[in-house]
Amino acid sequence: MIIPYNQNPFEETLSFRLEDYKRNRLSIAQQFVKNLIAYCFYIDEIDTYYDYEETDSIDNQYDYLNYFYEGKFMAKLFNDAIASPITAFAEHEIFALDTILTDAQSDYYNFLTSRTSLMHITDQLINKPDINSEGFEYYLYENRLKRNEIDDEEIKVLFDRFLKILKSMIIENLLNHFSLENLDLDLNRYKPLFRDFKYHLNPKLLNESELIEFQNACLRWYDQLIQHFVFKYQLEDCEDHLQILRKSFVALLIIKPETNTKDEDIKFPEQIFKTAKAYLLFKTYAEIHKTKICISYLYRRMYEKDKLILVKDTLFREWFNRQDYLIKLLSVTETYDKAHTAERQAHVDLLYKAMDLDGDS
Questions:
Q1: What digits encode the pLDDT tens for the residues 109-145?
Q2: Phi, psi (degrees; rounded to nearest 5) at 286
Q3: Backbone conformation region of residue 273, classed left if phi is above 0, alpha if psi is from -120 to 50, else beta
Q4: Rg for the chain (alpha carbons), in Å?
Q5: Which of 33, 145, 200, 311 could bridge across to 140 with cysteines, CB 3.0–4.6 Å?
Q6: What is the DSSP letter of 334?
Q7: 3-state helix, strand, coil in the chain (%, to 5)
Q8: What are phi and psi of 83, to 5 degrees?
Q9: What is the pTM of this model?
């Protein structure tokens, strides 16, 4: 927990502003946030804002911290623009570092310089207005899907809510870690929204062919929104994580993963997988994940829990490394307990559902 300074740390040496990190009371990211909040609080020339609203009445740093972690904290730092101050303050701190650095100062410098692009992305997410689904109704009209049975206005609102939640979760992750490597897109926060989506994307008054055409159009719209979202905020490093959300969205539809052949006609490594569906599920997952921990979770679940993979770790890795997947497994896969997270389980549960597979986990 960050406990704000009770005196102006910028009247002291830089080493004073790194004491919490040196004593292992704060991470280097938390130390940076503590210093940023203090700078905006103690320097008289700086005006601060909550989502563009001035905060003259605020006289404590705890409120500033709350605003910061909400993604609403803004300031006029070194120019007249009201904006998220993260990148500007990081540049100030880099300039303040001594030529000869202590270990703590070196860690701070490396943190600041290695996170420059992520800090810029965070500022952009906070500063730029939300993307919305403007044009969805016209898109349905152009595709001859404008019908009384489809509540296009409500579906547009749902897409807007989806983007708002996604943006909020990415900002939250960046503000806490200044990293996207372990982005946690908590699917539980989408449950109420996905419940509403499921209702509005499955109108009973459409026949099956009409419904599939409508849902395919909605999936294309979803993909376009995500593509625009990634481009606008420079979030290409998030694309693997965003596939989890796409699988969740697809699971709401009657559209199934593409396959035009019966199970008995699918060629698959029978010495590795119990069924063709098990193989297709694993293949779908492995083609979008490039971390060992993710592959380890699915392998351990399918082998130990659901008995859909038939071979032990060594034989499985030998087979896996001969395939054209995104990574190679050069050491023993992680244990189930180590690899398991609620997010991974929810993702795989949705894949099982989409593939009509039974699992015990």
A1: 999 999 999 999 999 999 988 888 889 999 998 888 8
A2: -65, -25
A3: beta
A4: 25
A5: 145
A6: P
A7: 60, 5, 35
A8: -160, 165
A9: 0.69
